[in-house]
Every structure is written in structure tokens, then in C-alpha cells.
Amino acid sequence: SNSKIAPVILADDIVGELDASRRHGFWQAIGPSSQVIATGTERPTRDNPRQWWYWEMKSGLLSQAEGQGEE
């Protein structure tokens, strides 16, 4: 479909579950206007072109983590 609405993609632990080749392919397949909400135990690697904002959960509190906006 040629919808002009950018999708929101929910990705659970992509960095930790895919090997480097598949992870690179995953990021390449996502359009640049898509929003990605990703969870995981590791931060994204440099094989994706997106800018990330990091959040962390500690003791039941959600807060912005260091490193926001870095690639």
C-alpha cells in the first residue's frame, strides 16, 4: 500500500536476538519516517542510522538515561 502514514514499529530486543547481518537488514528495511520503540538489554549498535533516546526503569521509576540522542 502507498499510505502516507508512517508506521510505529515496536521491536523487542532486536539488538540482542539477531546476528549482525540480520540486524543490519532489519534496520535497512524500516523506512526513515517510521517511529521505532525498541526494548532490550543492550543499546543499539552503529549498524543502524537512527538517533536514539534512551530510557531506563529502576526501582519502578522510568527516567531518561545518559547518552540520549547519540547514534
Describe the structure in your own words.
- This protein is α+β, with helices and mostly antiparallel strands and 71 residues long.
- Helices cover 20% and strands 25% of the residues.
- The chain is built from two helices and four strands.
- The chain has helices spanning 14-17, 20-29; strands at 8-12, 35-39, 55-58, 61-64.
- Strands 1-2 form a two-stranded parallel ribbon. It has a two-stranded antiparallel sheet with strand order 3-4.
- Strand 3 and strand 4 form a beta hairpin.
- The longest helix is centred in the middle third of the chain and has 10 residues, at 20-29.
- It is globular, with a radius of gyration of 13 Å.
- The model has no long low-confidence stretch (mean pLDDT 79).
What's this entry about, in short?
With 71 residues, the chain is of the alpha+beta class.
